[in-house]
Each structure stands twice: as C-alpha cells, then as structure tokens.
Amino acid sequence: MDNYLPGGLRFFVYSLGCPKNSVDTEVILGSIVDDICNVTLVQGPAEADVLLVNTCGFIESAVSESIERILELIEKKREGQILVVTGCMVERYGDELVKELPEVDLFYGARAPQNFKEVFKGFLQRRYNGNATLRDTTPGRHLTLGCSSRLLSTPWWRAFVKIAEGCSNHCTYCLIPAIRGQAVSRSKQDIIDEVNELVGLGTREVTLVAQDVTAYEDNGNLLYDLLRDLLAYTDISWIRLMYTYPGSIDERILRLMAESKRICKYLDIPIQHASDRILKSMGRKYDSQVLERQLELIQDMLPSIGLRTTLMVGFPGETDDDFLILQRFIEKWRFHHLGCFIYSDEEGSAASKLYNKVAPEMASKRRAALMELQKRISADINASFVNKTLDVLIEGKSTETDLLLTGRSQFQGPEVDGVIYINKGMAEYGGIMPVKITESHCYDLIGEIV
Ligand code: SF4
Global pTM? Predict the structure, then answer.
C-alpha cells in the first residue's frame, strides 16, 4: 500500500478559458480518480485539500485573469494545502512562472491532461518524503488516446467532447499552435466510445470541440465520417459543432445535418473579418469570396440554421474602409449569434511585428458599433421564432427566479448563446420538450411547454 497516497482529496477548481480547456480539467480530475484516490469537488478554497487553476494563456487578458486567480488562491492558501497550476499559461511561460510564483506547489503543462496522475503521484510521494516544488511539462504529444476518464464539470445532460488537439492553421495573431502544438486528431472509435459512455451517464447533447473541428482527420476519416458514425453507433440525442473553419464545411456535412434531426441545426464559424486585405494579413486561408460561397451553400442547404461567428477588430493596418466592409458583411449575412474581440498584440505572434497598430480607443469604438448592429440583428432573428414551437433541452431553474425553467433549442450553443425562459409547464431537467415561443428579446426567448 503506498502510504503517501491519500484516501480521498477535496479539490477546489478554477477552470479558465475555452471548452477544450474545461475538458482537460475534467480529464485531469478523472485521471486522479482512476489512479490515486476519490476526488470531491468543493465550492470554496477553504474546504479544499488541493487548489487547482487550469489556466488560459491565449491572449494577455486571459493571462491576467489566470494570474489574478492564482494570486487569490495564494492569499487564501492554508498550511498543508496543495496549489496546482496547469494549462496553457504554464505551456507559454514555463520556467518564468516557477521563479515568479514560488508559492505554487506543482506546475503542469497543457499537452497531456490524462498523464497528470503520474506527475501528481510523484509529487505526493516527494512531498511525503519532504521534497518541495516540482515543475513538469510532459514533452511531446500524448493526445487523450483511449477514453480517458473525466470528472464531468458540466450538468449531466450535456458535455463537450474534444475531438482533436492543437492547430496547424498558424493565423498570424494566434499562439495556440505554439502552446498546444500541431493539430492531432483522436481516433474515431475512441470518440464513439466516449460518446456512448456519456449516453450511458444520461447525456443528451454533446458539443464537438477542437481548435478547428473541420481539420479532423483520423486515418482518412474526416469530420463527415465521424458525424455519420456517431449517428450510426450512438444514441446521443443532439450533436453540436463548434469551431468550424470557414470554407471547410462541405456539402456532405451539410446534407447529413439537413437529413438528421440529431445534428443540431447550428454552426459556429469564426470568420474573424471580411476585408480581403485584413484576412490575408491575419493568415486566414480564405477570402471574402470563399466566405460568401460558404455562407450561400449553408443557407441554401439549411435555410433555418443558427449561425454563430467570432470577429476581431483593431487588427494592425485595419482602416475605416476595412471596417466598413466588415460592417456591411455582417448586415448582409445576419448571424444569429456574434462575439467580437479586439486584437491583442501577443508577444511571439507574427502579427505583433506588423506596423500601423490601431489605437485602442478606435478598436473599442469599432467593437461597440458591431455589437450594437448585432443587437438589432439578433433581436430581429429572435422575433421570427414567436409562435413557433421548438425542441428545447431543459437545463434547470433560471438563476433569476425559481418560477422559470431555462433551456436551449438547437439554435443556441451552451455557455455562449442566449437561452429560452419557460414560464408555463413542467419538465424534467435534461428532457427535450416542445416549447411554443410566446415572446422574444435581443438575446433570449420566452415560451411555454406545449
Ligand atoms: S484556427 Fe487560427 S485562431 Fe484558431 S486556434 Fe488555429 S491558429 Fe489559432
């Protein structure tokens, strides 16, 4: 019996950044349950044995938030507690962090969450034998091969499923390829097994995530093959796609989406911009013509699809004319959901070496103008749902009032889009119910179960 291994550990967790990172947090915790001891998630740092911050290191503001959370836990840390920092910021800043944050007991990178158990075990043994700090970033690539255990952090009826790691697109403003490596896809069978396990736990909706899900390739199997086989070999109710790369969504995928009720009529397609000059400077592998053809194809084959996009304003060299092109593009194509970020000059990115940086005030003004435009478009699209009946995944009581249930339709992605408030009718959490929309707002809808 390994005396240094505890019977159980209480974890307090900050999981920062994107859904891919929250899957990594779940895999890290799952690996401990698998191999070391039982894990209980606690609501407050004071009750915990281990304080874990899974960081995001994508852009400066994310790095600042990660540092803030770590410093908060350093301040609250009690004698005997273990403070663990993992994720992209460790991958990006490695040794600097060890020097800057001596209060942190264990640092671990972002590339092999399922192997955390080995490093943690080693740490517990060294600690038991009186050793101090350890930093570990497992070299090379160990994608989540085989169905690594996960301690699900999402409600049981929904889960993110990471289908690939890393990215090979090398957009000039992005450090992800440097932080997470080149794109590597999980095996198709591995993903099918994971989804079947999730269905066994009662999961109704899986959202497939990666840096670029359309780059999925496993021994000649592409995203189309994965979707076809998830429909054939699992009973999952809803399959949702996020992070598709513009220009890479082909007719086969769209036909499969059109023919199957189980693939959400929803696509997250981050276009970033619409000015050819800026798209080229961003290193995006498409221009506005490709974008237009892609959106035409999508709307021809799936007229009522819910489209989400992400934009970036303030990219070096962006002029008023470039911005006008972007505004007109958004007015024409009317995305249901839209997020807009301001360019961030990231040390080490190719774009940080570009001239003609845009003044922050101008970038903020452009972002505000786009969000104002989108508010009108979103309100308009939402108004078109009134008197329609939608299938809604019931997600529990509204945080605003117990009188309301909330849920999402296939047009609304988890954690990023609006929701549907249900003010009439009862339903079980995790159920998919017909809801008649009675009222619409900019981002949310109101309805009753019919
Ligand atoms: S597609 Fe571009 S922005 Fe997205 S993760 Fe890859 S390199 Fe970064």
Answer: 0.91
